Each structure stands twice: as structure tokens, then as C-alpha cells.
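Render this sequence as a predicted structure.
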Amino acid sequence: MKLTFLGTGTSMGVPVAGGFGREVPTGDSRDERWRTSAWVRTEDTSIVIDTGPEFRLQTLRAGIRAIDLLLLTHEHTDHIAGLDDLRPFNYKRKKPLPAYTTEGCINALKNRFYYMFGPDKTPGSVDLDLSILQQPVQFRDCTITPLPVDHAVMPVLGFRINDLSYVTDAKVIPESTKEKIRGSKVLVLNGLQWEPEHKTHITIPEAVEIATELEIPKTYLVHISSYVIHKKISARLPDHVELAYDQLTIEI
């Protein structure tokens, strides 16, 4: 199984529009981050997790030619704004794209992308087969297990896909979810910034504590803010935790 990080940035991306946040380029491409999204490939399956504002560009940059399944963590704009860019993948499939997410996210999608659903659906718009994921499901060669976490302002759904656990936008990970993550070979976890503590996101030191507690062989941090300099922060991390960066591809 391969995992490509399509984007690793926080909700505003890096660098941030309008000069908010770090403005001085470091010259390191790892410090330029599109909104957090991922592509998982097995022998039989192509899965995308989240469709943020740069999704079209992310698919072109990564060379994605087909999508078999969509996983949506939650309804915040930085995770769903690129939903329209699924249209060419629909045209190629000639049938709806299955998608797993939460009930709240489904309701939000039907409200914000009203033209994709119902009797007045716009011809040619994205066609999704939406399902609430509450129990593990088998999709081709992938066992997909829901990993509910708390974003402080709403529930978010992480996903365990075989030996990969993917969690973003978490503030609190319940013990029941931690038990589902245990045994993973790779954990992807949000790590917004080094300090201070954040109201809705895990910080990098907190993420390291979680990865260590769960004894995950390798953890990659995503949803990273503009204040995190890759080279500087990487030097402070233990060997089993790394900052992910856009276009990084790993094998699991």
C-alpha cells in the first residue's frame, strides 16, 4: 500500500494569503503546504481522503487518474471545497463515486452543494453515493475502520485503512478510538504548531505523546501551520515521528 500526501497544510494553507503568518520564504519546498489531503493506493483500490481548495491541482501534481472511493473527515471548507473537481473522475467512472463520512458532513454537503443532490440535481454535476461510516467495512482489498475524534467544535472521522491510521483535525482522541489505532504500522496525525496550546487542534508535542503512547512505529504529522519550519522542527522530533510534506509518498 502506498500513501501520498497531497497536502499537509492548515486551513489557510502555507504561505497564507494577505501576509498573515510567516511571510519570509525559507527556500525549502517542504515549507509550502497545500490544504491537507491524501491519496491511498493498493493493488486494487485508489482512495482519496478529503477534497480541499487545491484538489484539482493536487490530483494533477500527483498523477491521479482514477478514484474508487472517497473518504471525508468532516465538513470544514479546507476539507471539502474542491468537491466539484471530482467531476472528471465521475465522467470516467460513468457511475456514482462511493463516499464514507459522518451524518453531519452529509447534511452539510447536501446544503452547501445542493445542486449535486435531489430531484433538481444539475446535469453533469458530481455524483456521490454517500454513506455514514459507523462500523468497519470491507472495500475491495481494504478494511476501513472509522476513527471518531473530537475537533472541539464538531465530530471528525478518521480512518484506519488496513495498517494505516489517518487522523486529522483532532483535539481529543477518545480511548475507544486509540484502541482501534493500536497495532497500526503508520499513523497520520494532525500537529498544528509547536506552541501554544490550541483550542481545536493537537499541537506537535501532544501528537508526539500520542504516537509514543500508542507505540506506532512511524507517525507523520499533517495540518501544519505557517509557523512550523520543517528543518527546525524536524530536529526536535524523536525518530518515530516526522513532519509530512506535500508530495511525500511512503510505502506501508
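Summary. The mean pLDDT is 96. The helical segments are 55-62, 77-80, 87-93, 103-112, 175-181, 204-214, 230-234.
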